[in-house]
Amino acid sequence: MKNFFNKAALLVVCLIMSNSLKAQITFDFDKDVDFTQYKTYSFGGWQQDSEKLINDIDKKRILQSFKSELLQRDLDYELAEADLVITLFLVIDEKTSTTAYTDYMGAGMGYGYGYGGGRYGGYYRPAWGWGGGYSTTSYSEKDYKVGTFVVDIYDAKTKKLIWQGVSQKTINENGSKRAKTIPKNVGKLMKKYPVAKKKK
């Protein structure tokens, strides 16, 4: 179980992603734990250097999003002596995607001979093909950032990790859009929590 958590925490999927790509979600939890027994939680802070990678506004958005999700699962926030402790971890990778565009100019149909090789020797054969033209290929590069967000939930008494969720997505540089995408992505991540939301 510990090895799985360590691998999930270091998950970095090397994909060419655009701003419209949906968040990639992975999770795991201790199946021997009754999650309905927990009634309170506290935040244990941001791990390592994660706190330096995110501004105060987005920190507030993330914490408020988690509070909303947990409240709907009958979990109340407490500063001290809570049943659960939640820690947050963020990794940001800067990546570059390259797109190639090819234009074909002045191409025409032609007739000629071609040479083909094979297991039993070569041969000549007539063939139709395109000729008389040329092509140009141009390349476009785009820089983007990929964020890997890890949520660890510990049993406060046993100090054991009981649930972990990992979300990976291209970071939207538009702050006003993050006001909507952060709650949405936290909601998707918390759908993997063993206790479902209360029905309204």
Automatic annotation (TrEMBL):
Keywords: Signal. Residues 28-194 form the DUF4136 domain. Residues 1-23 form the signal peptide. It holds the Pfam family DUF4136. It comes from the Bacteria. InterPro entries: DUF4136. The keyword Signal applies. Gene3D superfamilies: 3.30.160.670. This is DUF4136 domain-containing protein. It comes from Lutibacter agarilyticus.
